[in-house]
Amino acid sequence: MSDHEQDRLLDHDYDGIQEYDNPMPRWWLWVFYATIAFVPIYYFAPGNIGAGPGKVAAYEAEVAAYEASRPAPAAGMASDESLRALVADASALELGQVTFVQHCAACHRPDAGGLIGPNLTDDAWLHGDAPSQIHATIVNGVLEKGMPGWERLLQPEQVDAVTAYVLSLKGTNPPSPKPPEGVVTPPVPPGT
Ligand code: HEC
């Protein structure tokens, strides 16, 4: 044992056992003090750590901001009149047709004569024949029956356009249609 080490042998003697003063390395102590110094910074930092609102709140705020930045849902904005007027708008019908072929034809058939979903060209409607009702069916879907809701999947103008396109198909009598489902309503006289 060197003299230096001898110096650090403490004075106590417990039944012949002596205590050797063996301090932590200096670098270790500085790291330790640094973590203590960090506690108030961490605890009072207004950000997403410590006493701040936290990551969950930050995530929820981000989602809320995103939802707020989205265009208002199409439901309620589309009136019977505006939808009927859209049937006369060639570019809307074109957008409606593209949308229909892409998203709806798999279930309703490209000519809308009905397959998994009902025939959309006849006078029988399960969820109402008014343009705004058809629009609402497309927006909300009928999830328990396998009709998806399109509010989140399509832009509002696509929903309006595809509604107009469906309206324009009324009475087109595609070959071998699916039998009528729902309530049969008298055809809407032209011009209304
Ligand atoms: C996964 C299959 C599926 C897809 C895709 C689908 N539909 Fe449907 N749709 C259905 C089913 C099934 C029903 C019948 C719901 C019921 O029985 O209540 C339905 C019902 C409807 C109705 C109501 C018909 C009525 O008689 O009231 C409309 C309108 C409609 N769909 C339009 C669309 C449009 C427009 C699209 C594309 C944007 C679309 N659907 C895509 C399956 C689908």
Give a written overview of the molecule.
- The chain has 192 residues and is mostly helical.
- It has two domains: 3-69, no CATH class; 80-184, Cytochrome Bc1 Complex, Chain D, domain 2.
- The chain has seven helices and two strands.
- The protein has helices spanning 3-7, 26-44, 54-69, 80-87, 90-108, 131-140, 156-168; strands spanning 124-125, 183-184.
- The protein has a two-stranded antiparallel ribbon with strand order 1-2.
- It starts with a helix and ends in an 8-residue tail after the last strand.
- The mean pLDDT is 87.
- The structure holds heme C.
- Residues 103-104, 106-108, 116-118, 120, 125-127, 134, 137-138, 142, 145-148, 150, 162, 166, 181-182 line the site of heme C.
Primary descriptors:
mainly alpha, binds heme C, 2 domains, single chain
Residue fraction in strands? under 5%
Instruction: Tell me the distance between the termini.
Output: 109 Å
Order of helices and strands: HHHHHEHHE
**Total of helices:** 7
Q: Please report the first level of CATH classification, the CATH class of the largest domain.
A: Mainly Alpha
CATH hierarchy: architecture of the largest domain: Orthogonal Bundle
Mean pLDDT: 87
What is the fold named in CATH at topology level of the largest domain?
Cytochrome Bc1 Complex, Chain D, domain 2
Report the radius of gyration as a whole number of Å. 36 Å
Question: How many distinct domains?
Answer: 2
